[in-house]
Amino acid sequence: MTRQLEPFQKIEQSITKKYRKKLWNPFLTSVNRYELIQPGDRIAACISGGKDSMLMAKMLQMLQRYTEIPFELVYLVMDPGYTEENRKQIEENAARLDLPIEIFESEIFAAAEHTDHAPCYLCARMRRGNLYSAARDRGCNKIALGHHYNDVIETTLLGLFYGAQLQAMLPKLHSQNFPGMELIRPIYCVREEDIIAWAGHNDLHFMQCGCRLTQQMAQTEAPGMVSKRREMKELIRELKKNNPDVEKSIFHAVHTVHLDTFPGYKSGGEEHTFLEKY
């Protein structure tokens, strides 16, 4: 008689079988290539409620079960002011994925809504600070965020086109404001399209965007309100029509920067010029 699997077991099975090459293997590549997890780590898997962070948390949970490296996990959800509907969706998805989440509240959305200066930037900084603080209070030395392969590429292009700089996204970094704390990105090598496919296969529906300000901006349909990140997604989609490997090229490029060909660069906050070694 075949044993009936629980919903979360079917989801886990899809990760290690049907999507092994698309999700599980790239996840392991991220963890191993960039040495994201060390023995004795206590990691706060930070869950926003979206597909990326939920999958990341699930795979970290599975890795903890299978690996010989001893590490601990805390499944941390910050509620910055979500609607009741969004919070309920997070709780229901966590239960379906068998993730024992811990929710703490903040007033970040309210604070961001009442500023005239770059509310998205303020919100992002406040969210990161709150997550570090909550993780530290729970004895964690690392926080894990759900940034993926496509985020790396889009961030690189955003810096080039709108920031006038060649700047990528690191798979891990030390916190500047919380000594001893690190940020890691375990799904750094996982493609967004594969995450979407996995969610659809399991009939999982995650929160798209819980930001009240973004929703208000979208409703106005005002010129200039289109997300710059969405603009990068559309640009890449067009480029792929002629070059299917364009994403792979950009991702590889940020790993093989030829500094000797640049007239200038920054390191440790200091500017340098090629003339120093000319």
How would you characterize the overall build of this protein?
With 278 residues, the protein is of the alpha/beta class. It has 11 helices and 8 strands. The protein has helices spanning 7-16, 20-33, 51-66, 84-96, 108-113, 119-137, 149-162, 192-201, 212-220, 228-242, 246-253, and strands at 42-47, 72-79, 101-105, 142-144, 172-174, 182-184, 264-267, 270-273. Strands 3-2-1-4-6-5 form a 6-stranded mixed β-sheet, sandwiched between helices. The chain has a two-stranded antiparallel sheet with strand order 7-8. Helix 4 (84-96) links the parallel strand 2 and strand 3 (101-105). Helix 7 packs across helix 10 (228-242). The longest helix has 19 residues, at 119-137. The radius of gyration is 20 Å and the shape is globular.
